[in-house]
Every structure is written in C-alpha cells, then in structure tokens.
Amino acid sequence: MFTSERGTPFTTAGFACMIERVGVEADFGFKAHPHMLRHACGYALANKGHDTRALQAYLGHRNIQHTVRYTELSPARFKDFRRN
User: Fold this and answer.
1) pLDDT tens per residue across span 42-74
2) Under 8 Å CB-to-CB from 38, ≥6 apart: which residues?
3) How far apart are CA 34 and CA 12, in angstroms?
4) What is the pLDDT, as a whole number, of residue 69?
C-alpha cells in the first residue's frame, strides 16, 4: 500500500519510523506509532454511528469489549435520544 522513497514497499520498522517522524513534525508532544491509526479509524467509524458488531468485524476483534471502547466515547451515540 505504501512505498518508500526508493519505490519499494515499506518494512514494518520503516513505516513506524515514518509515522514517528510525522508526529514530530506535527509537534504532537508524544511519540506517534502506527497502531494509533487503527484507533483513529475505530473512533472515526464509531462517531459516524456505525454498528458496534460491524466495527468488531471490521477491526478483527474477537472480544466485543475491545470494540466497545470506541463507542463509549462517541457523542453520536446519544444524538437521537429523547427524554420522555
């Protein structure tokens, strides 16, 4: 999916270095790592209102508790709730 400056596929270590370098350039204030992209994807999909079971399958989680963390913090979960 990603290629290096030489036109070859990134190694795992090379991709991790690129993400870390981008984090430094963005002045995040913490060390960025590739797994953060997975978390960002999970949170983004949860915020768009995707079903928790669909997220579980997409992210490849065996245990639903690993997926629930993305929906627990999603403000969109309560968007259509009404008080009776």
Assistant:
1) 989 988 888 899 999 999 999 999 998 888 766
2) 59
3) 9
4) 86
Both tokens assigned to 28:
């995040």
**Sign of torsion over alpha carbons 63, 69, 70, 75:** positive
Q: Which residues of 21-60 are buried (b: 16+ CB within 10 A; e: fewer)?
A: eebeeeeeeeebeeeeeeeeebbebbeeebeeeebbeeee
Distance CA(49)–CA(74), nearest Å, equals 8
Tokens representing 23 are 């984090």
The structure tokens listed for 13 are 């270590």
- How does pLDDT run across 8-19, given as a tens digit for each residue? 888 889 889 999
